[in-house]
Hints:
Blueprint: E1 3-7, E2 9-10, E3 13-14, H1 18-28, E4 32-38, H2 42-50, E5 55-60, H3 69-83, E6 87-91, H4 94-107, E7 111-115, E8 117-121, E9 124-131, E10 136-140, E11 147-151, E12 168-171, E13 201-205, H5 213-227, E14 230-233, H6 235-239, E15 260-264, H7 270-276, E16 281-286, E17 299-302, H8 305-320
Parallel strand pairs: 1-4, 1-6, 4-5, 5-12, 6-11, 7-11, 13-14, 13-15, 15-16, 16-17
Antiparallel strand pairs: 2-3, 8-9, 9-10
Amino acid sequence: MKFLVYIETDMGDVVASSWEALGAALSLSGDVEAVVIGDRIGEVTEEAVARGAGKVYSVEDETRALFDLDRHLADVKNVLAQSGADAFLASHTTNGRDLAAALGADLGAGVIADALELSLEDGKLKGVRGVYSGNILVDVTVDGSPQIATLRPRAFAPAEKAEGRTAEVMLTDPADVNSPYEVLDVQRAEKGEISLTEASIIVSGGRGVAKDPELGFDLIRQLAGVLGAAVGASRAAVDAGFISYDHQVGQTGKVVRPDLYIACGISGAVQHLAGMGSSKIIVAINKDPEAPIFSVANYGIVADLFEVVPAMTEAAREKLGK
Length: 322
């Protein structure tokens, strides 16, 4: 089976979980190609070769610097026609899942979304994904061609780099598409802020910070800083204006799978659990002993986050010597 893997970029920088999609494809097949779309993507293209792609299609244009679904969809369809790939993989990022869904709809192909495992069975892709907020794992296969799957970030090992690898790089013209979208402004996360989808530790805040949101998230950021963690939030905290949407974890935010997830003042709505329920270790801090978050937590602390989080930060500083 031939795979085509979408290597996502953002203003010339690679989205690291793309290498996990490449690694998954390489673990299943010796015939793996990659498509890189963006602006100033020379280094990303070279890295795709170094990580094992047998051929790389490079679609480079300033109009592709930011993700535009119409343009990226047209580019991927062009590359698929050239490649003849049997399967298309992407990381289950916001852009990756949009692209995969649109591609499936356009080509009449099914999509295995947010796969935790991927295998080949009788020439077909089989994925394992969570349903009912991750409480049940199901096997999924799809009809149509190409077979399409998006992969949960941090669920697969990234493709390894190796010196001396060579591969054909196909410089591919961007599709001639008049996009209806116009980017008016780009707001970047603060420099040095850790990406939620790539973080091994996440400290998240919820509606429990309501009595003093500024102080609450300041305490959460302090703990995250000591632990080298990303800062997350529930939808309730985002909707209340306590923190920006790019921190939202959940069904309508980012789906994460860190080694450690610390939920501070988060009740545990189904939508939030769907986004973080696969975390390896979950620590919940909530004043309400009946909060649903405790049903999925490995460790629970029934207490006020304004008292517990500073104590955790101080203990972490002492333990880590910071």
